[in-house]
Amino acid sequence: MSAVVRKNSKTVFGSTIVNFRKKRQNELLAQDYMLNAQEISVWLDRMEK
């Protein structure tokens, strides 16, 4: 019984880390998209001048 609990704990902990990594990756992608949008905006402003 103890081994099963330990195995389940590792699984839960492992999936928590995976979820954290996915969330962090999504946050970094969102930041990257925002930076790209800002750069495009600056570029368009320069082209209009």
Q: Which structural class matches the secondary elements?
A: mainly alpha
- From N to C, what is the helix and strand string? H
Strand content bin:
under 5%
Query: What fraction, in percent, of the residue positions are helical?
Result: over 70%
Give a verbal description of the structure:
The protein is mainly alpha-helical and 49 residues long. It has one domain (1-49). It contains one helix and no strands. It has one helix spanning 2-48. It is rod-shaped, with a radius of gyration of 21 Å. The N and C termini lie far apart (72 Å). The relative contact order is 0.07.
Structure in a nutshell:
This protein has 49 residues and is mainly α. It is 96% helix and 0% strand.
Key features?
96% helix, rod-shaped
What does the secondary structure layout of this molecule look like, with pairings?
Blueprint: H1 2-48
